[in-house]
Amino acid sequence: MAKGISVHVGVNNPKPSFGVNPLLGCVNDANTMFQIAKDNGFEAKPPFLNKEATLANVEAAILDAAGKLVAGDIFLFTFAGHGSTKPTTFSVAEPDSQDETILLFDCILIDNYLRRNLWSEFKKDVRILGIADSCHSGTALSEQPPPPTAPIVSSGKSTAAVSVAQATLPRSYRTLTDPPLVIQRPPVICKYDRAFSEADRKRILEVSPEIHNEMKAKLKPLLPLKATLLTLGACDDLELARDGADHGVFTKALIQVWSNGAFQGNYEDFIEDIGEKTSPEQHPILGPMVLNPNFVNQRPFMIS
Questions:
Q1: Residue 142: CATH number of its domain
Q2: What range does the domain containing 278 cover?
Q3: How many domains in the chain?
Q4: Which of 69, 104, 168, 194 is the most exposed place for a label (fewest CB within 10 A)?
Q5: Pick from 243, 281, 251: which is nearest to 22 by CA?
Q6: CA distance 52 to 298
């Protein structure tokens, strides 16, 4: 019989020395995702919240699951908190010259480290489902950026993050093979956004160099995964995700669509229905670049 293990992270308040804007709904998001996992038969580890959401704790929990799961099993990882981007060298793997990141209590965790050092440890044909409710989260859990195709002409809208793709796509969500979003102007972070700025990033690296240098030194080469990865991001890599007093906008929509398990569609239906509730401000992303149809066609959170 197939087995499911889940790990949930919610960070409203990273280390005070990081100086980032506190959030409101992330702990609630993590607790809710924990309950959904538990209700669906996952061996759900108690959520890592705020001070508990350290790299050591999160990494140990993921690697512990990787050691226990075998072909046909499923691992669920959810994150709610701050997200951002980090400049990196242009390459085939990173045509946007950006790494997407999430902020744990004690460090910035880049997509590369998750993909290369953690997801890589799962055995062949284990399913990994990653869900991120954070800014710039389209590829935050997958390290697979959009293809370097020509951008579309902007529609001239004045919102912080603008997509003209929605006008040409018959759906409310995006995949990583869609034409890139066009941003009318750079996103301006406000206190209701789950983002941290470039100035925040530099300050975080200055006050905690050891942990970040260690991650950089330990980073493995990018190799094909043995496991099958599917990710749901709250928004495109170029967009901001909105926080809320009770839940993030994305997680609140997810809860409504899931409807205590009444939802009966597949992951594509799931992300589309969520997107209908978050668009046009946020365009949820279904990834990675190459989707496994067998995984996508399953009902969300099902173990068997």
A1: 3.40.50.1460
A2: 4-151+174-179+191-296
A3: 1
A4: 168
A5: 243
A6: 32
